[in-house]
């Protein structure tokens, strides 16, 4: 139970990839088409350059403090109390996000696979496994990712390849019919969903990952692969189902998998998609929840995050039952406040961190210069 | 709990402390009496008083444990020499000029290779009860301990637990020395170091640690010694005791120590840098660190051709999942996900299940439990009855249960599939862990369907990746991923491809061989020519 | 149902608390008990179907002026 775990670059890269794929492969097609109709997939592609830029910026911030995690940087930059308050708000953000992800799992399972099981039990079981994982520690989760990633990728590639015969390219024509504006809103949506939340990985990134990392290998490539898969799935969903059907489904990718039929031999493969999706979401939720716990641990100065693991999991389960009172509220939240919420934490907050830290280093630099001049 | 433990310890210590004599007495009779008294007059220990020397002036006492010694040896080389042959010899002055009879005996009379001089009383008992002969002298507080060990032991036979079609058919026996000899015969290298030490306050069982110096990682060797030195029990009756006392995780269904009866497996493990622990009295030798993949590797994989070995290995992994998940998948599909079963199969399944009074979970539980009972009975029963039981189990129970409508015939297929595939694993103790987990998965399937199974698998993998065996991650070449070790995980590369030792177990002496791919000159293909590897 | 919930909550508390008692300091146990107590109250309140508003509504309320500003 040592606190000082070290991941290697490969493991961290896989976690980044799973984090990006996470909920996206199931939900993005619907939200992207909802915003940009049949051009939704272009919106998802556009995320890639912006996301890479964003990651580069995050890396710049964190490389200033290579031995601190995000929360320690907080205290360093903003001082003790403000830093702790910010850590607490990150914890709050993480908790809300974890609860929504948990809600999505419970909702998906209860709607599509386990029709008669109450959502609360589904959530409890999932959270129990998350507790197991986090109790063993981050290193174990990363290693588990190493074992599952080949399976996830194989299953996803299988879904994509098996859907190819059903593709109808008429669904995506004409390209950019309604101009660029709706596409950009789809981009913003996907950005808030998969990219802006990546800042929570700064709790792990420079400190707990083995050094001499090539940035491209650790961050950029896995991110690009993740976005590539999301784009593929979105594109194929649109071309197979058409944009209207895609946008009204809550989980269009699942519908896509239901449509797969290969020569009467391979049918009903939607469970394959469900398996790979649950696996990816497991890692995404683990990371969110790990971030949440670490944030609270730092905010309250507790020795180990495992102390508050179980009670926080109970809170998360309870929250997951009430976060979305109804579906209408959920869709409205997702398309308005959530974006603002995630931009605040994923965009404004790192920016603030960067500005303040730059000012501080400048100040301390000039100060030290003064002192040297005095001598 | 704690109090009880302390209480017992105290009691034992006080018992041991009573009137112990540290060193041998000077008088022969006193020594003999004391030894006899301490042994409670056990009848298997033989006491023999005799006189030696030209005029019979030297009083001697001989003690040995009957059954643990070679009788002929004592007759011919101890008693005969001392009692008759010495008398016939006339010593020259220079030879006989010794300050004591003790030296005389040691230098000229005892014609034995392995001999030791002892002074401590507890050493006397230790040597005596492990089969050595003790020779006591009058007026001397030293004794000879002559190695005359020899007893009825099982011969080297074909191992019963891990049979192979092709490969050596020798198996370890219960005698430590035979076992170390079997290893020496395979590895004739001065770097094969075997060190032994007695463990167990009462049984004094010899436990030997064998490793290849320079190949095995020093840290792991140190760790093994540390854990062995920590052991403080009264008895070691099998290597299972040692395994349980040194394993990393007690509360885990998965074994973190490998055991085998095959000397060739152990030799291969030693050459990979693993460490063998040989326990006297047990034909099962332990091998650490043991990794997950090791339980899927059979010795025969390396004796058969690489392509066939790969196929067999894939089948083993497949049967691992089958044994683990078939009953739970059946339960999940028939209870929660009927829409996933193809229609024609669903119809025949439901028509079979129509008359079955139980839900699928109970049905599966009944059959799996029945099978486990049958298996256990088959192992324990006398061999003559065993086959009869298997007929009863297989035919009568299986068929009759279906005909009576207790279980569906699909369920019987499921159970037999699980049963067979759980025996595919080359290692018996790994199959046990699968069997235990199976019931957990069945419960999960009965409550949450496939979702439960999937989360169960995630939890299982989390547990597996959290395990370590002597500091080495249990899932090691897969997680953490080691690229160079993938050649011996799912695939078994051809022999020239297995050029390096496993990376995590062994850090220093990596290169195993420098053979290049065999290329007959007649069919030389320049395109695929390999460059010779440089030795590091 | 009541019984099941309370039993499971108590068992979890005992198992987890015992583990923490063994491995950590006393101060940590106090923190754990406090957090666990609060989370249990939350769970029970939810079980009693008390009207707990979604925290998302609060966040929406905070962001309302900003969003209106943006949409204008």
From TrEMBL, chain A:
The chain crosses the membrane at residues 12-29, 41-61, 81-105, 120-138, 145-164, 184-205, 225-251, 271-293, 305-324, 336-356. GO terms for cellular component: membrane. It comes from the Bacteria. It holds the Pfam family Spore_permease. GO terms for biological process: spore germination. It is found in: Membrane. Its main location: membrane. Keywords: Germination, Membrane, Transmembrane, Transmembrane helix, Transport. It is a multi-pass membrane protein. Belongs to the amino acid-polyamine-organocation (APC) superfamily. Spore germination protein (SGP) (TC 2.A.3.9) family. This is Uncharacterized protein. It comes from Pontibacillus yanchengensis Y32. The lineage of its organism: Bacteria, Bacillati, Bacillota, Bacilli, Bacillales.
UniProtKB/TrEMBL annotation, chain B:
The keyword Transmembrane helix applies. The keyword Membrane applies. Coiled coil: none annotated. Its main location: membrane. The chain crosses the membrane at residues 275-296, 317-336, 381-402, 408-432, 439-462. It holds the Pfam family GerA. Residues 512-536 are annotated as: Disordered. It is found in: Cell membrane; Membrane. One of its GO terms (cellular component) is plasma membrane. Keywords: Membrane, Transmembrane, Transmembrane helix. It is a multi-pass membrane protein. InterPro entries: Spore_Ger, UPF0353/GerABKA_families. One of its GO terms (biological process) is spore germination. Residues 523-536 have a biased composition (Basic residues). Belongs to the GerABKA family. PANTHER family: LEUCINE ZIPPER PROTEIN 4, SPORE GERMINATION PROTEIN. This is Uncharacterized protein. It comes from Pontibacillus yanchengensis Y32. The lineage of its organism: Bacteria, Bacillati, Bacillota, Bacilli, Bacillales.
Automatic annotation (TrEMBL), chain C:
The chain crosses the membrane at residues 29-48. It comes from the Bacteria. Keywords: Membrane, Transmembrane, Transmembrane helix. This is EamA domain-containing protein. It comes from Pontibacillus yanchengensis Y32.
């Amino acid at each position: 139970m040592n606190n000082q775990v070290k991941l290697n670059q490969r493991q961290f890269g896989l976690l980044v990839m799973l984090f990006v794929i996470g909920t996206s492969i199931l939900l993005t097609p619907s939200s992207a088409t909802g915003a940009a109709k049949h051009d939704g997939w272009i919106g998802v592609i556009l995320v890639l350059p912006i996301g890479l830029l964003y990651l580069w910026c995050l890396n710049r911030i964190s490389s200033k403090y290579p031995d601190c995690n995000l929360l320690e940087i907080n205290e360093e930059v903003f001082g003790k109390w403000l830093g702790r308050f910010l850590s607490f708000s990150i914890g709050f953000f993480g908790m809300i996000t974890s609860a929504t992800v948990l809600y999505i799992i419970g909702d998906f399972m209860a709607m599509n696979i386990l029709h008669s099981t109450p959502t609360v039990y589904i959530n409890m079981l999932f959270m129990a496994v998350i507790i197991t994982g986090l109790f063993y520690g981050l290193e174990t989760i990363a290693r588990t990712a190493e074992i599952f990633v080949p399976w996830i990728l194989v299953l996803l590639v299988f879904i994509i390849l098996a859907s190819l015969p059903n593709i109808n390219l008429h669904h995506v024509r004409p390209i950019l019919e309604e101009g660029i504006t709706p596409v950009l809103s789809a981009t913003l949506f996907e950005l808030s969903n998969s990219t802006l939340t990546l800042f929570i990985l700064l709790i792990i990134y420079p400190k707990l990952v083995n050094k001499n990392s090539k940035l491209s290998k650790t961050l950029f490539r896995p991110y690009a692969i993740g976005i590539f898969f999301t784009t593929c799935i979105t594109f194929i969903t649109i071309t197979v189902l058409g944009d209207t059907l895609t946008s009204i489904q809550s989980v269009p990718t699942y519908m896509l998998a239901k449509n797969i039929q290969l020569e009467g031999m391979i049918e009903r493969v939607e469970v394959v998609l469900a398996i790979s999706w649950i696996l990816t979401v497991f890692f995404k939720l683990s990371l969110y929840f790990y971030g949440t716990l670490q944030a609270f641990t730092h905010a309250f100065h507790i020795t180990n995050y495992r102390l508050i693991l179980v009670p926080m999991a109970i809170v998360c389960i309870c929250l997951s039952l009430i976060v979305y009172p109804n579906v209408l509220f959920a869709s409205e939240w997702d398309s308005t406040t959530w974006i603002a919420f995630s931009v605040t934490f994923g965009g404004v907050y790192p920016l603030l961190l960067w500005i303040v830290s730059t000012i501080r280093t400048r100040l301390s630099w000039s100060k030290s210069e003064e002192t040297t001049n005095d001598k | 709990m704690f109090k009880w433990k302390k209480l017992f310890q105290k009691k034992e210590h006080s018992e041991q402390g009573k009137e112990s004599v540290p060193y041998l007495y000077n008088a022969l009779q006193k020594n003999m009496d004391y030894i006899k008294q301490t042994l409670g007059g056990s009848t298997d220990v033989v006491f023999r008083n005799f006189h030696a020397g030209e005029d019979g002036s030297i009083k001697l006492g001989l003690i040995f444990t009957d059954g643990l010694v070679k009788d002929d040896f004592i007759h011919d080389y101890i008693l005969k020499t001392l009692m008759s042959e010495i008398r016939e010899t006339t010593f020259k002055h220079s030879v006989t000029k010794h300050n004591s009879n003790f030296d005389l005996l040691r230098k000229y009379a005892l014609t034995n290779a392995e001999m030791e001089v002892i002074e401590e009383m507890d050493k006397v008992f230790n040597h005596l009860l492990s089969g050595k002969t003790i020779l006591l002298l009058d007026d001397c507080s030293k004794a000879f301990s002559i190695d005359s060990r020899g007893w009825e032991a099982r011969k080297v036979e074909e191992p019963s637990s891990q049979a192979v079609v092709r490969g050596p058919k020798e198996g370890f026996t219960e005698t430590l020395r035979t076992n170390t000899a079997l290893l020496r015969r395979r590895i004739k290298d001065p770097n094969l170091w075997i060190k032994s030490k007695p463990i167990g306050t009462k049984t004094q069982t010899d436990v030997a640690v064998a490793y290849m110096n320079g190949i095995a990682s020093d840290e792991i060797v140190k760790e093994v010694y540390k854990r062995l030195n920590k052991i403080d029990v009264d008895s070691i009756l099998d290597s299972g005791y040692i395994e349980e006392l040194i394993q990393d995780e007690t509360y885990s269904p998965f074994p973190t120590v490998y055991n085998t009866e095959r000397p060739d497996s152990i030799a291969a493990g030693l050459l990979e840098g693993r460490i063998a622990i040989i326990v006297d009295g047990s034909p099962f030798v332990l091998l650490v660190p043991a990794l997950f993949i090791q339980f899927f590797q059979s010795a025969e994989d390396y004796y058969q051709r690489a392509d066939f070995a790969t196929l067999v290995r894939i089948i083993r992994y497949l049967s691992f999942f089958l044994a683990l998940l078939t009953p739970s998948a059946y339960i999940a599909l028939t209870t929660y996900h009927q829409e996933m079963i193809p229609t024609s199969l669903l119809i025949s399944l439901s028509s079979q299940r129509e008359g079955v009074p139980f839900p699928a979970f109970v049905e599966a539980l009944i059959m799996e439990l029945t099978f486990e009972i049958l298996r256990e009975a088959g192992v324990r029963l006398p061999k003559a009855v065993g086959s009869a039981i298997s007929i009863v189990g297989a035919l009568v129970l299986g068929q009759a249960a279906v005909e009576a409508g207790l279980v569906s015939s699909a369920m019987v297929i499921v159970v037999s599939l699980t049963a067979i595939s759980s025996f595919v694993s080359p290692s018996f103790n790994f199959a046990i862990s699968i069997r235990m987990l199976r019931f957990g998965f069945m419960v999960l399937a009965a409550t949450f369907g496939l979702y439960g199974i999937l989360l169960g698998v995630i939890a299982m993998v989390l547990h597996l990746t959290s395990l370590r065996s002597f500091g080495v991650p249990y899932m090691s070449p897969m997680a953490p991923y080691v690229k160079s070790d993938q050649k011996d995980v799912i695939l078994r590369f051809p022999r020239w491809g297995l050029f390096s030792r496993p990376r995590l177990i062994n850090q220093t002496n990596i290169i195993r061989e420098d053979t290049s791919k065999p290329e007959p000159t007649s069919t030389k293909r320049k395109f695929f020519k390999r460059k010779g590897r440089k030795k590091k | 149902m009541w019984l099941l919930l309370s039993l499971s909550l108590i068992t979890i508390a005992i198992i987890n608390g015992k583990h923490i008692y063994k491995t950590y300091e006393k101060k940590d146990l106090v923190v754990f008990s406090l957090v666990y107590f609060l989370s249990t109250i939350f769970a029970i309140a939810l079980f009693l179907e008390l009207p707990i508003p979604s925290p998302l509504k609060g966040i929406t309320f905070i962001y309302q002026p900003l969003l209106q500003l943006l949409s204008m």
